[in-house]
């Protein structure tokens, strides 16, 4: 099984057939353009504006107000908006915003992409402080860790001002938690929910609540606020999967070397707690403390059954194959903690803001079965497959007899990753007049200290006959349990984790410790960033200008271990660099409801920790290693757009953007060059020279309150982002052009809603086109991996039983969208996975 390592990587997540994607965004763009033009011509209601106490229109109004007054190109969804959407977590809530899509894990939104760019090119802040990543190799924050109930508002900032961290290329996702000053007095709410997973038939509970109030301290009145929010939910679900890992031989047609069926059973538990304090000492001084804790626990059992053909086979052909069955059984806990202490002081024309933040993300996987592999005793004759997109196994009865497999190896692992970010910042601003025009000068600095470490321990149990275990004891029939409920074909029996643990528990674990795997994957990295900025804001009639410069100096250090031909070698590296990042923003008020924005900004994004890893493995003429000397990505960005506001709960906008990117990072093979001239393989990461990204972002949303009843309850919204990228890569195979990895050409949303004082309905669709996921060798474009397009359709209905009590029904993934990764062409599977719809019924009590 020469390519088993390909199958053991759990690639990406889901799709439906590629054919229907072509016209979806063209129709969406037409809908935006025609609907927005029509809406702009409609008369607005005269007299006093009215907004319902609770509902979709309220959330639209709040979000639009914040977007309108922002100095940046910014998209916002408020807590009310989050409540209207059938979203499990923060990642899924952001996908409703213009230009935003999500990468999914087991069907749930996990990482956020902005304007088609990959998650590692964005940053996430909670209450103003940067959040590190709980995953060992990435910078991208897995936002499925955060329950949506803990969020007061979500924003995606797409043009950075000089007073903001410069570490995002697509956008900065800003998460704000609840404050007592968000409500006029006592506020509390509580929800109970049950959900049903259609794929597994499992039912799951969820509970959440929030409360806030103000109190009088000293001589003040209602000047001290306390707000708390909590959430707990457990979801039992699963997925069915078939994947080749890209093991296609295209030299003589399209022939498959091996593939594997996988069944996942998952229990996912989320819990979170936020506790915030605000104190307004007087009109000139205020203080706050923001705290947030979130915990995400994933228990996963994966049964796999696979074959490797003796000779690569085309669909419909039969031949001999080797077969195997495998179990992975693990528990993984991710935690995010964030504590932010800050104050604001007014001193005449001066405003002083000080803030200290500490945040930590961690991922803990206690000792678990990373892989228990049972090999077939003999070859299986007359084995084959049909369907190159969703391979179905064709094989004799012997493959389903547990007596024909025996335990070959058990991989036992534990892993812990911790990522800590500490920072302090100070901002000073002075308002004054310049030639009769309002102006402000603002300057400040920030010190950030980040430490990320990973600790792995691994044991590999094999050669059992050397330890007194008989061949009969190793037969799969001794470890089998029940038939696997697999929706993509016949599977056979599953494997008992308890039985596997019972067997290896009889052995001395010290004799099976894998020092190489344990040490090479360990690392300790530190990243110290010192920043300072100066910016100036000037209002001249209908113009607002912001000009400034930001400096960021980075000191990076990495420690790890490599192995060269069996010998361990300490691997230490460091890299220092400085960036001067100018920026210019302009906003012009064409009329009362229309404004034009333009921005030239510069940003810097550091490589991922996987790419910077100091560990390496050199074995004969093969090598694999990280590259701590990588340069950061640098981008010069241009944005130009127009926003027209349609009353208080409607807006239509159009933006064009361009990004000139230097030093993007890609996978490469250096064999045949330099130190690696005599090597057959030398896999690492390298900087590309440059890449370009350009695109168009359209958005429209409105409530049609001017129409006669019942149409005055109608709400509609649509947004679409179209982008294109150009990049080139090179290695021993030459040079070729590619799209930027993770960059989708088209991303869009459609929303149709209706509400009155009692009932609220919302149907929404989210679309993302296909994108390049992983680049193969420069001379092997046919083995590039792509994620196919996806369209998710969700529905929400909410009904007020009383003024304070609301009944809700939600349905996610109504069209049973799947996930598909293909190899080179959409006809050839790398991974296919499907999940089924999820339905929820909930009850919410709210008191204002």
Automatic annotation (TrEMBL):
A Gene Ontology term for the protein's cellular component: cell outer membrane
Matches recorded under SUPFAM superfamilies: Porins (SSF56935)
Location of the region described as Disordered in the Swiss-Prot/TrEMBL record: 190-212
InterPro entries linked: Beta-barrel_TonB, Beta-barrel_TonB_sf, Plug_dom, Plug_dom_sf, TonB-dep_rcpt-like, TonB_rcpt_bac
Keyword line: Cell outer membrane, Membrane, Receptor, Signal, TonB box, Transmembrane, Transmembrane beta strand, Transport
Domain TonB-dependent receptor-like beta-barrel: 382-814
Organism superkingdom: Bacteria
Family affiliation: Belongs to the TonB-dependent receptor family.
Protein name, per record: TonB-dependent receptor
Organism: Pseudomonas fluvialis
């Amino acid at each position: 099984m020469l390519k088993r390592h390909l199958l053991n990587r759990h690639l990406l997540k889901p799709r439906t057939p590629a054919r229907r994607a072509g016209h979806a965004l063209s129709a969406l763009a037409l809908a935006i353009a025609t609907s927005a033009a029509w809406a702009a011509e409609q008369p607005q209601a005269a007299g006093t504006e009215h907004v319902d106490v609770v509902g979709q229109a309220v959330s639209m109004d709040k979000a639009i107000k914040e977007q309108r007054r922002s100095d940046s190109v910014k998209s916002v969804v408020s807590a009310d908006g989050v409540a209207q959407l059938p979203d499990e977590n923060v990642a899924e809530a952001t996908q409703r915003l213009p230009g935003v899509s999500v990468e999914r894990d087991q069907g749930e939104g996990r990482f956020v992409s902005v304007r088609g760019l990959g998650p590692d090119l964005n940053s996430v802040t909670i209450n103003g402080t940067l959040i590190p990543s709980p995953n060992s190799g990435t910078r991208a924050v897995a936002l499925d860790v955060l329950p949506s109930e803990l969020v007061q508002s979500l924003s995606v900032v797409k043009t950075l001002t000089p007073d903001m961290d410069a570490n995002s290329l697509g956008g900065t996702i800003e998460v704000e938690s609840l404050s007592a000053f968000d409500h006029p007095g006592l506020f509390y709410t509580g929800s109970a929910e049950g959900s049903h997973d259609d794929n597994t038939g499992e039912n799951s509970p969820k509970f959440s609540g929030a409360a806030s109030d103000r109190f009088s301290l000293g001589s003040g009145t209602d000047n001290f606020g306390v707000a708390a929010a909590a959430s707990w939910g457990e979801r039992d679900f699963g997925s069915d999967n078939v994947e080749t890992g890209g093991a296609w031989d295209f030299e003589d047609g399209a022939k498959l070397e091996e593939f594997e069926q996988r069944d996942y059973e998952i229990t996912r538990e989320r819990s979170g707690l936020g506790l915030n304090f605000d104190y307004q000492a007087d009109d000139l001084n205020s203080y706050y403390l923001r705290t947030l804790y979130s915990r995400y626990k994933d228990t996963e059992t994966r049964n796999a059954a696979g074959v490797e053909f003796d000779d690569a086979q085309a669909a419909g052909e039969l031949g001999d194959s080797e077969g195997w069955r495998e179990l992975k059984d693990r528990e993984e806990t991710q935690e995010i903690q964030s504590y932010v202490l800050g104050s604001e002081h007014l001193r005449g024309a001066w405003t002083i803001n000080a803030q200290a933040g500490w945040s930590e993300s961690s991922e803990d996987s206690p000792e678990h079965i990373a892989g228990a592999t049972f090999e077939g005793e003999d070859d299986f004759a007359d084995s084959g497959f049909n369907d190159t997109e969703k391979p179905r196994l064709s094989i004799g009865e012997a493959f389903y007899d547990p007596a024909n497999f025996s335990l070959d190896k058990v991989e036992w692992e534990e892993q812990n990753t911790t990522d800590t970010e500490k920072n302090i910042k100070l901002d000073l601003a002075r308002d004054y007049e310049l030639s009769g025009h309002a102006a402000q000068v603002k300057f400040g600095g920030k010190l950030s200290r980040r430490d990320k470490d990973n600790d792995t321990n691994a044991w590999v149990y094999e050669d059992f006959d050397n330890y007194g275990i008989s061949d009969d004891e190793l037969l799969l029939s001794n470890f089998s349990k029940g038939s696997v409920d697999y929706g993509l074909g016949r599977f056979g029996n599953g494997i008992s984790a308890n039985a596997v643990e019972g067997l290896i528990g009889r052995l001395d674990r010290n004799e099976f410790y894998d020092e190489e795997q344990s040490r090479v994957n360990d690392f300790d990295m530190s990243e110290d960033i010192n920043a300072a900025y100066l910016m100036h804001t000037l209002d001249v009639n209908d113009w607002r200008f912001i000009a400034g410069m930001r400096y960021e100096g980075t000191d990076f250090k990495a420690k790890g271990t490599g192995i060269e031909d069996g010998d361990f070698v300490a691997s230490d590296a460091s890299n220092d660099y400085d960036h001067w990042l100018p920026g210019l923003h302009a906003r012009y008020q064409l009329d009362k409801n229309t404004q034009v924005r333009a921005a030239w900004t510069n940003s810097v994004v550091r490589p991922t920790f996987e790419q910077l890893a100091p560990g390496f493995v050199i074995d004969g003429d093969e090598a694999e290693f990280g590259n701590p000397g990588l340069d950061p990505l640098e981008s010069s960005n241009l944005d130009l757009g127009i926003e027209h506001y349609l009353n208080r709960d409607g807006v239509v906008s159009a933006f064009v953007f361009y990004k000139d990117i230097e030093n993007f990072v890609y996978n490469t093979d250096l064999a045949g060059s330099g130190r690696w001239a005599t090597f057959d393989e030398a896999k690492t990461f390298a900087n590309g020279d440059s890449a370009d990204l350009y695109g168009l972002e359209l958005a429209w949303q409105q409530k049609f309150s001017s129409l006669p009843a019942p149409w005055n309850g109608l709400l509609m919204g649509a947004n679409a982002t179209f982008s294109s990228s150009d990049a080139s890569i090179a290695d021993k195979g030459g040079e070729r052009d590619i799209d930027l990895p993770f960059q989708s050409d088209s991303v869009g949303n459609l929303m149709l809603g209706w509400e009155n004082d009692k009932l609220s309905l919302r149907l929404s669709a989210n679309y993302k086109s296909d994108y390049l996921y992983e680049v193969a060798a420069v001379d092997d474009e046919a083995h590039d991996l792509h994620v196919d397009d996806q369209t998710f359709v969700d529905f929400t209905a909410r009904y007020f039983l009383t003024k304070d009590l609301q009944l809700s029904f939600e349905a996610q993934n109504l069209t049973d969208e799947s996930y598909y990764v293909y190899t080179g062409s959409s006809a050839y599977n790398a991974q296919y996975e499907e999940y089924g719809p999820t339905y929820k019924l909930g009850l919410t009590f709210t008191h204002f």
